[in-house]
Design goal:
The chain is globular, with a radius of gyration of 18 Å. Strand 3 and strand 4 form a beta hairpin. The chain has 10 helices and 8 strands. The protein has one domain. The strands form 2 sheets. The protein has a 4-stranded mixed sheet with strand order 1-2-3-4. Strands 5, 6, 7 and 8 form a 4-stranded antiparallel sheet that branches. With 213 residues, it is α/β, with parallel strands linked by helices. The two termini are 34 Å apart. The longest helix has 19 residues. It binds S-adenosylmethionine. S-adenosylmethionine (SAM) binds next to helix 4 and strand 2.
Length: 213
């Protein structure tokens, strides 16, 4: 695979993709986390997904080992693995490629076709987790503040979603720095979700496909 699309894009956006051997070497530095199904990763300049695709593959290998014997658990934990991966990308073609690449990996692992609820739920999750926007201004393409969905699996087929603004989440690390005026604030006072959703099943998530909420 070429690591550069054009000289102009390198000059304009620093677009040079990371080779697979280097991605793996870097992920090996956080091996345990990269193989933990519910460890959360954010790639703020995700390109077409060289890092996050590999993270997804590592997580899915963990799903297979832990839940490979039960189709129900395997499907739900595979979706949870996807739900825990986030990206931001400035260029429209890259973000589309990135979502496609991630969906292909999940669909290949679970042998899904496009009509499967899980395929549609995953497509919805990817439209939220992989943001077309600017990681520096923390604004989406349409200038709304970037907001990420925090997903959790409650068991028995139900997923939980709470939305957080990225600028609030990143600002909160400065608040809690030692010596800061706000250092004594509890995390609960800082990590207030912008929205909390009722628990949702796979098919409820699938029905959200195409809705940008
Ligand atoms: C060096 S490439 C790396 C891509 C990918 N992480 C990889 O390692 O293959 C940097 C990527 O960041 C994107 N980018 C540049 N400025 C950005 C910004 N302010 N916010 C989000 N993405 C940005 C570029 O379009 C490009 O796809």
């Amino acid at each position: 695979m070429s690591l550069v699309k054009s000289k102009q894009r390198v000059a304009d956006h620093g677009e040079v993709f990371t080779p697979a051997w280097m991605v793996d070497a870097m992920l090996d530095l956080v091996k345990d986390e990269s193989e933990r199904i519910d460890a959360r990763f954010l790639e703020p300049a995700c390109g077409s997904g060289n890092f996050i695709v590999r993270i997804l593959q590592r997580k899915l290998a963990a799903v297979e080992i832990k839940y490979g014997k039960s189709d129900f658990e395997r499907r739900h934990y595979a979706l949870l693995a996807l739900m825990c991966i986030y990206g931001i990308e400035l260029l429209p073609d890259n973000i589309v490629e990135c979502r496609t690449n991630m969906l292909e990996i999940l669909a290949g692992y679970l042998n899904l076709d496009e009509g499967d609820d899980l395929y549609r739920a995953a497509s919805h999750v990817l439209s939220l987790n992989l943001v077309h926007g600017d990681a520096l201004t923390m604004l989406e393409q349409d200038k709304k503040p970037i907001t990420f969905a925090e997903w959790g699996y409650l068991g028995k087929g139900k997923f939980q979603r709470r939305d957080f603004r990225l600028d609030v989440l990143t600002g909160s690390s400065a608040f809690s720095a030692e010596g800061s005026l706000f250092a004594s604030l509890g995390k609960h006072e800082i990590f207030t979700p912008a929205k909390t959703w009722p628990p949702m099943t796979l098919s409820e998530l699938a029905n959200q496909e195409g809705k940008q909420t």
